């Protein structure tokens, strides 16, 4: 009897031990250890397609600086800019598979390959004219919350969205009204949506690779093109264009992203260190972007070759109205939530314009 009792007690001790170990494992899984407790520095990788001198590259460098500072030497970020790790699609796959910790894709083309609804920002005049409204809408609005939910289902966690400076037109003709776009050879990125954007305006969209834009404008293969003012300056398009028109008709939205599995493996305090680093980098990049835009305008005007024009609000409204049919191209291949994402976005813009601008 005594022997059986000892065996029973031994079994109970073993069971209790195993249960205790299981609880410890569950607790550890629910409460990951901080990187700050690591004996050796941890290496994370960040990849994107931007080149040195571009806004996104600047943002990435500042984020790296702030993350490494916040982790006090416990984290080292390896930086892979300019598409060193492959195409947007390749980088997204690395992120999803856990071979890459951080990535900065743009919404329209790269994320649109994963979540078709993300392509809605390829449509002209979807953004508000007010930068602060857009920043609020992309980071707090319902449309982007839906996008984030769909991306998380694909193991991509967007931590912060960032809109670069607005795109505008450069042209050899002074685009001041809707009729000025008719027949205009507008250089476009090879995209069915962007082609549709200009066909509905009766322009002549002309697909030209990015590397050939300057020569295409110089040789009159195209009469006009779209890009941010800072890009028009840095790529010297103003040398072969008579006008820059501040249309603010679209813009590139980047998303600082992590693999969702990787993000969930971090202690909350480590997530907060990363989030804080991104916000500090945002403030820095906002100020630098404004400086770059103003400097670009000054240098373009100083060249004496190019005028900078505004659009009359009434004429801009006519162009916006004429652009609405281009949304049909998006709806052809926009996923099950295509109409919903546009409706939510329009509601978000209206809400934040009322809140921030009083419109």
Shape: globular
CATH class membership of the largest domain: Alpha Beta
Strand order of the largest sheet: 7-6-8-5-9-11
The string of secondary-structure elements, in order, is HEHEHEHHHEEEHEHEHEEHHEHHH
Number of domains: 2
Strand elements, count? 11
Low-pLDDT ranges: 1-28
Describe the structure in your own words.
The protein is an alpha/beta fold and 359 residues long. The protein has two domains: 39-164 and 252-291, D-Maltodextrin-Binding Protein, domain 2 (3-Layer(aba) Sandwich); 167-251 and 294-356, D-Maltodextrin-Binding Protein, domain 2 (3-Layer(aba) Sandwich). Helices cover 50% and strands 16% of the residues. It contains 14 helices and eleven strands. It has a six-stranded mixed β-sheet with strand order 7-6-8-5-9-11, sandwiched between helices. It has a five-stranded mixed β-sheet with strand order 2-1-3-10-4. Helix 7 links the parallel strand 6 and strand 7 (204-207). The chain is globular. The model is unreliable at 1-28 (pLDDT under 50).
Compact overview of the structure:
Helices cover 50% and strands 16% of the residues.
Highlighted features:
six-stranded mixed β-sheet, D-Maltodextrin-Binding Protein, domain 2, 2 domains, disordered N terminus, about 350 residues, alpha/beta, five-stranded mixed β-sheet, 14 helices
């Amino acid at each position: 009897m005594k022997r059986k009792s000892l065996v029973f007690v031994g079994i109970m001790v073993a069971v209790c031990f195993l249960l205790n170990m299981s609880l410890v494992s569950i607790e550890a899984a629910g409460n990951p250890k901080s990187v700050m407790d690591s004996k050796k520095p941890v290496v994370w990788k960040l990849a994107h397609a931007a080149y040195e001198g571009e806004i996104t590259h600047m943002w990435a460098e500042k984020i790296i600086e702030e993350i490494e500072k916040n982790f006090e030497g416990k984290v080292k970020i390896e930086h892979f800019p300019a598409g060193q790790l492959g195409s947007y699609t390749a980088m997204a796959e690395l992120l999803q598979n856990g071979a890459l910790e951080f990535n900065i894709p743009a919404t329209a083309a790269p994320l649109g390959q994963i979540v078709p609804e993300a392509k809605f920002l390829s449509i002209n005049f979807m953004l508000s004219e007010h930068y602060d409204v857009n920043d609020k809408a992309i980071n707090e609005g319902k449309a982007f919350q839906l996008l984030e939910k769909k991306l998380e289902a694909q193991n991509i966690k967007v931590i912060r969205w960032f809109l670069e400076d607005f795109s505008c037109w450069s042209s050899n003709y002074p685009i001041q009204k809707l009729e000025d776009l008719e027949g205009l050879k507008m250089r476009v990125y090879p995209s069915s949506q962007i082609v549709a954007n200009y066909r509905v305006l009766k322009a002549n969209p002309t697909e030209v690779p990015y590397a050939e834009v300057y020569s295409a404008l110089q040789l009159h293969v195209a009469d006009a093109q779209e890009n941010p003012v800072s890009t028009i300056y840095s790529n010297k398009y103003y040398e072969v264009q008579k006008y820059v028109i501040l249309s603010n008709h679209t813009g590139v939205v980047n998303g600082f992203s992590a693999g969702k599995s990787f993000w969930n493996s971090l202690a909350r305090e480590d997530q907060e260190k990363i989030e804080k680093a991104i916000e500090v980098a945002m403030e820095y990049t906002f100020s630098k972007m404004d400086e770059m835009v103003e400097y670009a305008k000054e240098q373009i005007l100083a060249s004496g070759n190019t005028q900078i024009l505004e659009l009359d609000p009434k004429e801009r409204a006519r162009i916006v109205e004429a652009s609405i049919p281009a949304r049909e191209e998006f709806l052809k291949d926009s996923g099950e939530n295509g109409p919903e994402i546009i409706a939510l976005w329009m509601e978000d813009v209206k809400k934040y314009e009322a809140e921030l601008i009083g419109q």
